Amino acid sequence: MTTREDGYFLYHSIGQYPGKEAGLSAAMAELAAVWSAPNDQQWPYLLGKRGEFIDYWRAIIDAPAGSATTCENVTQGVDMVMRALPDGLLRGRKVLVAADCFPSNHFLLTRLQERLGFELVTVRARQGANFVADEDMIAEWDRDVALCLITWVSSTTSRRSDLETLVDHGRSMGSIIGVDITQAAGLLPYSVEAPNVDFVVSTSLKWMCGTPGAGILYVHPDLIRDCRPELCGWFSQDNPFNWDIDAFEYAPDIRRFDNGTPSIMPSAASVPALKWHASADRESILRSNRHLCGILIDGADDLGLKLLTPRSEEDRGGSLMFGLASPEQAVQVLTHLRGAGFSADTRGATLRLSPGIQTSEEATREVVVELGKALAG
Length: 377
Prior knowledge:
Elements: H1 20-36, H2 42-61, E1 68-71, H3 74-84, E2 94-98, H4 103-116, E3 119-123, H5 134-140, E4 145-151, H6 163-173, E5 176-180, E6 199-203, E7 215-219, H7 221-224, H8 265-279, H9 282-303, E8 306-307, E9 320-323, H10 327-339, E10 345-347, E11 350-353, H11 361-376
InterPro entries: Aminotrans_V_dom, Kynureninase, PyrdxlP-dep_Trfase, PyrdxlP-dep_Trfase_major, PyrdxlP-dep_Trfase_small
Pfam family, one: Aminotran_5
Domain Aminotransferase class V: 71-322
């Protein structure tokens, strides 16, 4: 089997860009050389790479200085914020989330409700619907909701939430509002100020084309001042080199969410991708995605496939999800596509296709043809 570079439809999972292997290899070789040198220059270099990673991400989400830091992944980022909130803020109240959030977040919230004493309210999709509607979130969002975690774009349908409407309602309810932007970060424009939210979590995978373990956490400066992270350490201080064990004080900014010696390698490994992304024509990438998605939708319609993703560009991210007859058929279809050199994946009976920077129009039209062969076979 020969995998086609231009037949890559997995940007909802691992993003690719021209020169990725060379850039990543060079970055890791440089890190190895610095770390192995018999001198004292390792930490200035490594912490500089972490700072570079954070600065690239701040530009992506329009975050001010001192408001973003690293985390291992989205789930950890959510946990860091929720455990740092003032004592009693969540206890006896509700935390709201949609059922089509990333499952890992729901697993976490289910466990945290006992630990932090809140009631987890999971809004389900209506009967026959593919995703949770914004109006159903709002219907459950009353003044007892202390915190709501919004999924900007769903990983199961690529449905895009109306952030402006949801955040406006949440503000009127006095809730803390967090947003998981993972499935659209790097493709769709995003700003933590429009609308203004309390915290944001994401990963450097998917459209960002980075590596695992390179998560990002943004916390609004007003909320930072009220937070006392449970997990703290020498990097939680304004001066990490304070060794007085009786004089610990949290840093005044996002650094209070740091703890022990920070993990550097995921950040350093992702810097080449973030650097490429910063120089890329993002409007052109989005236009191409929309064009290729249009070809896929038209082709799927001709094949009689059920589109689980909203048709309107304004209501979806960059992925398309199609419902097949069964998980078994999905496996058969995916096996056929892989045999023809195309990269995609499935979740149960759902086929997921995400065209990105390296995906060509020729490959997009051909994958429709191969999809038809697989369904007919």
